[in-house]
Design brief:
The structure is a homodimer.
Chain A: H1 6-21, H2 28-35, H3 39-45, H4 49-74, H5 78-94, H6 100-106, H7 113-136, H8 142-163, H9 166-177
Helix pairs in contact in A: 1-6, 4-7, 5-7, 5-8, 5-9, 7-8, 8-9
Chain A binds a DNA duplex through α3.
DNA sequence: TTGACATTTGACCTATTGGTAGGTAAGATA
DNA sequence: TATCTTACCTACCAATAGGTCAAATGTCAA
């Protein structure tokens, strides 16, 4: 991404660590080591770890929006769009990562109410975009089916992570697509 | 469960905490407070936290087997069995918990290889049982569809946890069932 | 060149982490 | 009776957690 912007580098590394080991699975010291900036400097940008998580989600939602816009401009075919959605997350799975939503949802117990709202927002973003494409496909109850779609893809990432196997993700998502 | 057996009480509480906040989201001190036994006493039963996690998964697999046997004896109708499978986990979701598999999969980064194998085993147990019932239903590729089923249910729990809403889980699982 | 502000640091803090050392009372076993 | 084992305990440990603060450094416009 950006080599220059320190905020982004901090967020990149934090996101990586969250996706690999959950919100409680890393510390500011870990980020410090990886980025080469001292621990107090990280506190300068993100006073508390909760601040970090919140900004992580806000940025993630922006990234999602950009991703969806890119997908929309890539093809008009809704079926192809769903496939690209799945391929988008395959990149994460390949690196042994989870979607940020899944990673944070699992640790929701240690997240502030505000963060949980932002997490719900991110999931809503996904459902909304998916529902739009399911509507074009004339699927009945697109909102419900969108929720099913999101759940399955998140679950597929979870299984792929457990098995440490990209094929697990791809196979499940393949079968999911065939239902639509 | 068992009021008497201390090992079980420790595991019960540990499992609760893992399902609520992940493997890194609780400490021996938390269990200590809840059970009323000192921290070193917990180390007496489970020398390290990894030992605890391993036994948690081994017990979980036994519980799953018992559950499946109970489901098998409850009804011969495979469709009804799938419904009961979903209801089984709804109890967890109602308490704001995740399936142990989902909770640990998200924190897989901080789990030993042995534990990850046990985690895979637990997921295999689920897939195997589901595949048996899908076979009876004459579903093609029952193993693949079983993986899809597991992923969706795990994902539904994740979403329900994020939204803190049992209905989210029920709706997704309802729609899942209608695909079979 | 200076002042103002942004950025980064070393030194430090308190609480908690997972874990250990050593001991003790109650049974079981020899 | 002597010894061993189980099931706990108190007291403690080094390391790490998230976080603070005053001082130093960098940047840039007036």
């Amino acid at each position: 991404m950006s080599q220059t912007n320190i905020t982004d580098r901090l967020l990149d590394e934090a996101q990586r660590l969250v996706q690999l080991g959950g919100f409680n699975g890393f510390s500011y010291a870990d980020i410090s080591k990886a980025i080469g900036i001292t621990k107090p400097s990280i506190h300068y940008y993100f006073p508390t770890k909760q601040d970090l998580a919140l900004e992580l989600l806000r940025r993630y939602r922006r990234q999602l929006q950009n991703g969806f816009e890119w997908l929309n401009s890539s093809t008009q075919d809704p079926k192809a769009r769903l496939t690209l959605y799945i391929q988008f997350f395959a990149g994460l799975v390949k690196d042994g990562r989870l979607c940020l939503c899944a990673a944070l949802a699992a640790d929701a117990g240690s997240l502030s109410a505000q963060i949980q709202l932002e997490l719900q927002g991110a999931l809503e973003d996904k459902k909304t975009w998916l529902a739009q494409n399911l509507t074009v496909l004339k699927i009945s109850e697109p909102n419900r089916q969108a929720a099913l779609f999101v759940a399955t893809v998140e679950g597929a990432m979870l299984l792929a992570r457990a098995y440490n196997d990209l094929a697990t993700y791809n196979t499940i998502c393949q079968d999911l697509l065939e239902h639509f």
